[in-house]
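Residues determine shape. Next comes a sample protein:
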Amino acid sequence: MTDAQETASANAAQDPSEDRSPAPVPLLEPREGIPPVTADAADLDRVVAAFAAGTGPVAVDAERASGYRYGQRAYLIQLRREGAGSALVDPVACPDLSGLCAALGDAEWVLHAATQDLPCLREIGMVPGRLFDTELAGRLAGFARVGLGAMVENVLGYALEKGHSAVDWSTRPLPEPWLRYAALDVELLVDLRDALEEELRAQGKLDWALQEFAAIATAPPPQPRKDPWRRTSGMHKVRRRRQMAVVRELWNARDQVAQRRDVSPGKVLSDMAIVEAALGMPANGQALAALPGYGHRMGRRQLEQWQAAIERARALPDSELPQQGPSLNGPPPPRSWADKDPDAAARLTAARAVVTTRAQELNLPQENLLAPDTVRRLCWEPPADASEAGVADALRAYGARQWQTEETAPLLAEALTAVAPAE
């Protein structure tokens, strides 16, 4: 048993909300030192062979360059497995890791906040068949702080350095301190997994966690967001459809430039600048240059391309202007329910109350007990059969897991039937 596992075993029976280690031990170096970066086919073959021969779960992490590069591709992959040690793989130099994925077979992957890393891992051929998400496990176990550093400290008694989490991981060569940080991120991940499994078992929640992990592993790839320009920061200030068209044109123009240059869109043009142009509707480049975000550092060619986008929006016929709100795939925003459907608003209030209470009793976040969107959909269009069985069927249709259905269907059925229709 490792030192980390002994610490975890001693801590596992404690209340997960307590600070488990008043004096965490700084974790400064990986056990076998910083592994070399795997950046060619021969080195990758050696890593594949080592991890195929390893045993037990595989700790996996990915580093991206959010805020620096376009998209969410991976720029470093970290792995660790008993018998194989740790590995750092450069997915830019080795863009196809499907062979590594195959070598892992049906081994369980251990990730922290798995849904953040799975899309970029899928792009390079790495798709787990089974996984254990230590962040989600922490939520289900009732931990108040579920970041990796906080979990390792509270559960295992070690302090991880987190100073390089937001650096530009597309940098080549990667500095040694960054590589040390990356290797340490997977150093104790399997130890953390083992301790959390015991914690969940002690609380009677392990089966719930396994259902959640299976749902993540089998979920289809996320679909591209419709009308992503609507998520521009400050968009709430833009009220007129013509102004919305300016936001859309500038957002799309910025996205094309960012993709071509492989930089974060925010480094091309800020959201604030897009909104300012939409509100100001400048008539020419000179007027545009006077707005915040289009100052003296911006060249004439750049001003011309942004002004051209504004002119495209200005020239659109009314029939092609965006609608005030996005097309809804589901119920409207709850703030409008009282006017649109008072009965639905009453059902939502009652349903939220019972879900909140039950989540508190189970010591887990409300959104993990049942997705808020599921509660809204159920209350906006309640099943014709509002019995416990009917509500359970509706919850399953919305994607609720079996444990969620068992915990909430009886409560929701009672809440829905207790709300008297408005006169």
Summary: Confidence is low (pLDDT under 50) at residues 7-15. Strands lie at 25-26, 37-38, 55-64, 74-82, 85-89, 108-111, 130-133, 158-159. The domain at 3-218 is CATH 3.30.420.10 (Nucleotidyltransferase; domain 5).
